[in-house]
Amino acid sequence: MQSKTFVKKKYFSRFFLDKIILKIITFVNHKGGVGKTTTVMSVAGILVKKFKKKVLVIDLDPQANLTKGSGVIPVNLEITLVDILRDDEASLVENAIVKRENSYDILPSSLDLALADQFLYERVAKEVVLKEIIENIKTRYDFILIDSPPSLGVLTINGLSASTHVLLPVETSFFALEGFESILDRIKTIKKKINPNLELLGIVATKFDGRKNIHKESLEEIKKSIPEKVFKSVISTNVRLEEAPNFGKSIIEYSTEAFAKDYIELTKEILSRLKK
Ligand SMILES: Nc1ncnc2c1ncn2[C@@H]1O[C@H](COP(=O)(O)OP(=O)(O)O)[C@@H](O)[C@H]1O
Ligand SMILES: [Mg+2]
Fold first, then answer.
1. Is 100 exposed, middle or buried (0-12, 13-18, 19+ CB in 10 A)?
2. CA of 8 relative to ligand 2 center, distance in Å
3. What angle (nearest 5°) sits at the alpha carbon of residue 116, between those of residues 58 and 179?
4. Nearest alpha carbon, ligand 1 atom 9
5. CA 159: distance to chain centroid?
6. Ligand 2 is a single-atom ion; what residues have CB below 5 A from it?
């Protein structure tokens, strides 16, 4: 039989371990259509299914693509992130989280999140509202992945302020790095003024098509941006990635591992960088 002290020790080390292990990663790019939502869904699905991690995803985009793509219909929800933000009721977060069997949990978004600017406008410390919300649930997960809207507004700032890491998906196309400096500047400012723990985890090239010269040139540009931060894994175009959200599933749930291989490699790289 285990002694009381042993059980106690085990409990406490697990408790402290959880606190230390939890990583909160925001996926950011001020452009739309670059693969933020697809990357959040894919990495979340793989962390759960392949690496047996406890994962929560938070949808900060009023378009609610992550929510809908994960099979959750915003109009059917009693409480969403909007209610929590608007009423300053961080403790309600429990009721808003949708638990999905054998998959990641989700804190869903809805269209009225577009009004966040208005209802957070007069709030003191409006940049850290999400951070307070997360405090209520952080011991239950290994990873919290945050999907942002295509802007650097108050919602994205809340995501960055609540995170330990930021990951930038960049589409391999014309003008891939346009506006890149302003995202990096914004991250630096948030690190300096609000969240000293924030680290740039990496940059991942997405929607790559090796048959197109412009994609190859663009990939080279991305690799030169901050070379030590660019992930070796490159996400190629893959029609299954477009199909999966229509079935409310991430790529690893929808398809075979072969079609998820780019994102599996990326997830492995993410895990290895986080260990360092
Ligand atoms: N690697 C990929 N291959 C093919 N289609 C992709 C890929 N990544 C994303 N897409 C598609 O591109 C569109 C935009 O991607 P999305 O993840 O929603 O971008 P964002 O969240 O940055 O707006 C979606 O229709 C998505 O299915
Ligand atoms: Mg999106």
1. middle
2. 44
3. 75
4. 35
5. 9
6. 36-37, 65
Residue 31 CA to ligand 2 centre (angstroms) = 9
The residues spanned by each domain of the chain are 16-275
Q: What is the pLDDT of residues 23-55, one digit of tens each?
A: 999 999 999 999 999 999 999 999 999 999 999
User: Which architecture does CATH list for 16-275?
Assistant: 3-Layer(aba) Sandwich (3.40)
Q: Which residue has the tokens 């966040």?
A: 116
> Residue 75: its pLDDT value, please?
81
Distance CA 192, CA 168 (A): 19
Indicate the average pLDDT of the chain. 90
Shortest CA distance to 23 belongs to which of 165, 187, 159?
Answer: 165
**Does residue 1 have a pLDDT over 70?**
no
DSSP structure class, residue 99: P
Could you report the per-residue pLDDT of 193-241, keeping only the tens digit for each? 999 999 999 999 999 999 999 999 999 999 999 999 999 999 999 999 9
Atom 2 of ligand 1, nearest CA residue = 237
